[in-house]
Amino acid sequence: MEAVPARARAYVACAALGTVLCLLPLPALRTPWWAVGLLAALYAACEHVVRQRLGGTFHPVLLAGAFLLPPPAAALVPLPGALLSPAGHRPQALRRIWRAAELALAVWSAGRVHWLLGGRDAVVGSDFPYALLPCAAAVLTFCGALALLDGGLLALGMGAPPTPFGQWGSVPARRAWRGLFSRSLAPVAVHGLAGLMMAVLWRSPYGPVAALLVLLPMCVSWWVFAQYHRERAAHQATIRALVQAVDIKDGYTRGHSERVGRASVMIARELGMDDERVEVLRFAGILHDVGKLGVPTRLLRKDGPLTPEERRIIELHPEYGHEMVRGISFLGEARAAILHHHERIDGTGYPYGLAGSQIPHSARVVAVADAFDAMTSTRSYSRARPVPAAVAELRRCAGRHFDARVVDALTRALAREGWHPTVTAGPPPAGPPPSPRPGGDRHGAGRAAP
User: Fold this and answer.
1) Contact 78, 62 (CB under 8 A)
2) With CB atoms counted within 10 Å of each terminal CB, which end of the chain scores lower, N or C?
3) pLDDT tens for residues 55-71?
4) Residue 235 class from Cβ within 10 Å (0-12 exposed, 13-18 middle, 19+ buried)?
């Protein structure tokens, strides 16, 4: 396993030092230590249950602490739970320290904003709706602090290991903070509302015991949410199994499906699609060649030209793929992309010879991503084209084979994010390039499709 980058360790150390500085005023404050201890124990218990049984994190108790306690005291609440909870990946000690420091800084920031806006007096006096404004500002601060700190760590190279072997890798700075705040705002806002309810009940005549009742519906809703994520994880496992089966059968194009999925996501985002459609396009790109499982292996691995009969058999793979995924409801329009990704704008594609707007939009996206990766991947039977040459070929065929708008979207995305071609089946053979190999992804832009 690679060591955590020194810059990431320094970043964690700075966060830990910042936490210590936040706690320094504690001796001079009249701190209700019993409330700090109770909230810290409650958070540790909830965090353990949520992370072990349901997955995810649980912030209502932390935000209740930010609403009830002085900011330095509120920063103490997450420390026991964060330091004692399982860290997941190695190095566990460093991850626990980071988790504790991150939450402490976020809670301190939220509590500070809440106090500055007079939120404590509004909570104590159950002064509604005036208590909502400082609480909303505190929730936004909490969410922003977490996003800012997490993005910095990603940029410095200590994100979750991207491979099963736990290797570290930094995220480009322009992408490190992308979406962190917007994705977490809705769940943190719900947790903030629950935290406010806890704080109000805590200060009511019914006392802290009544505040615990708020956690019951939160736990039920979290369980439902966890079930949804488990179902999505099962979907992902199904897709991975199908892709692995294709890669095993057609070793020449191993990794092609994942890269087509990545290119499809780049195009979809450039076209301004919402997150749900982007995810569907990713599935479509990953599964576009799943119908190869119905094609004889000898044809997929054949060297040299295909006979007309063999070509007709290979041209059935989009229909095979569509039949295989027909019953998987969560794929949505990805099924249409699997069936029609070899159609062409001029109507010369297959399996049905659709033209122009008759071709589903998802299929037009996957067609461009498929052709682009086929041209830029080095395999044992062909050399990769440089990315600019592949883009030029796509542009040449835009309006005839490919949707021009989709080609333009990929071009813009590549100019901004770049692309790293991959060797998928060893170095290319010496001598002149061989004839195109049979298979659904070998046609490339400008070549006759199989």
Assistant:
1) yes
2) N
3) 557 788 899 999 989 99
4) middle
